[in-house]
Structure formats: C-alpha cells, structure tokens
C-alpha cells in the first residue's frame, strides 16, 4: 500500500513532464502552420489582386528555388559559405577584444569609469552611417565586412563579460584576499569561472548579431567574394522573388543555428552546476 502511494506522486510528475513537453513541441508546430497559411494568403493577394507575384512568392516556390534549381543552389551555398566566414572571423575578433576590454575594466573602478563610456559609444554609434567611411579606409572587400561585423557584436561581449566579472560573491572575494591571492589568481580562479554564465549569454547574442552584421556589410560592400547580402540584392534587382526570399530565409536559419549552437555549448560547459545553483 505504501509502495503504491509512493509511486503515485512519481507517476503524476511524469505525466506533468510529458504534458509540458507535448505543449512545448506542439505549440510551435501549430504556430508554424498558421504562419505558413498567412504567408500563402498574402502571396495570393499579391499574385491575384496586386498582380505583383515577385513581391511575395508562394512558399512552395521558395522551397523549389532553394532545393530544385541547381544553378541557384550553387550560388546559395557559395554565398552561405562566404557569409559564414565573415561572421566567424568577426565574432572571434569581437570575443577577444570584448573580453579583454571587460577584464581590464573589472580591475579597478577608475578603469571602468574611463573605458565604459566608449563601450556605450559603440552601442549608440550609427554603424550604417560609418559604412562609406569604412569602405574608403579599408576597401570594399573582406576586411571591411569583418570590421562591420565586429562593430555589430562587440558591445554584448563587453557588457555580459563585465557583468559576470563583477557579480562574484563578496564573501568569496574577501576569502581569496585573506589567503593573499593576487589579481591574476582572483581573475583565473574566481572571477572568470563565476562569469562564465554571463559570458555565454554574451556569446550567444553576439553570434546572432555576427550573422546580421555579415549580411548587412555584404549588401554595402559588393566587391570580392559576395555572401548572402550580395545574393539578396542581386535577386531583388532581377525581380526573382522566390530566390530572394530563399536567400533571406537562409540567412535567418543561419542566425538561428548559430544561436542554438552557442546555447548547446553553454549547457555542455556550465549547464549542470549552473542549473543546480
């Protein structure tokens, strides 16, 4: 009898868990089909009423362009590779600069007061307004694309890393100081491990912005190896609506995949002990 009573809460907990999973999986699927239906409705309006089918093509035509047109497929894969290369290089540079910047500011209040305003300037600066200047200074190819990407994703790394480094427990810091730990020991053994959750949040956000920055830069710097931004612009000029939307959705999917990848890395690196805390 007691065994049956003990199993009852466990069974109820499993039912709730399975029900919650079903809801989490089912609702996005339902919303997806609703959005596809709305997409078809809008495409039908532009096709039959406005007589401008290239503005909003039917979803099945977008899929056909992405998977059933060999010439465009080749262009799409090449553009995706070029955009991914720019995004990765820009993200790596932004991570290195952002973390070093935050570590430097975390060492003393006067350093934070001196340097943090310039991090805010990076956030508020009109990056698109700087694009012509960047092109004039560094050319209109790979280097300029990377610089724009770095500008897009630098501030999240600075802010998240600085927040993590400053959020350590006061008692733990005083304990390290009582043991005679220097700044380097305090940084490596206390500050940096405690800042990992915030650092991964910054990485996740910066990774998504890196893709956006690479696509935006690509649309302004048309020389060199073109990426998804160039492909979108070219197909738009040719009035190839299905191909243009296929390139746009590819860029969106790339951003989502990069975001999910860094979320998985966060769980692998710190998920167990951080979730328990």
CATH superfamily of the largest domain: MetI-like
C-alpha Rg (nearest Å) = 24 Å
Helix/sheet category: mainly alpha
Give the termini separation. 36 Å
Principal-axes shape call: globular
What brief labels describe this structure?
2 domains, mainly alpha, MetI-like fold, 277 residues
Secondary structure elements and their pairing?
Elements: H1 2-49, H2 59-67, H3 70-106, H4 109-124, H5 127-138, H6 142-166, H7 170-178, H8 183-220, H9 228-237, H10 241-276
Helix pairs in contact: 2-10, 3-4, 3-6, 3-8, 3-9, 3-10, 4-6, 5-6, 6-8, 8-9, 8-10, 9-10
Q: How would you characterize this protein structure?
A:
The chain has 277 residues and is mostly helical. It folds into two domains: 1-56; 59-276, MetI-like (MetI-like fold, Orthogonal Bundle). The protein has ten helices and no strands. The chain has helices at 2-49, 59-67, 70-106, 109-124, 127-138, 142-166, 170-178, 183-220, 228-237, 241-276. The two termini are 36 Å apart.
Précis, in short:
The protein is mostly helical. Helices cover 87% and strands 0% of the residues. The chain starts with a helix and ends with a helix.
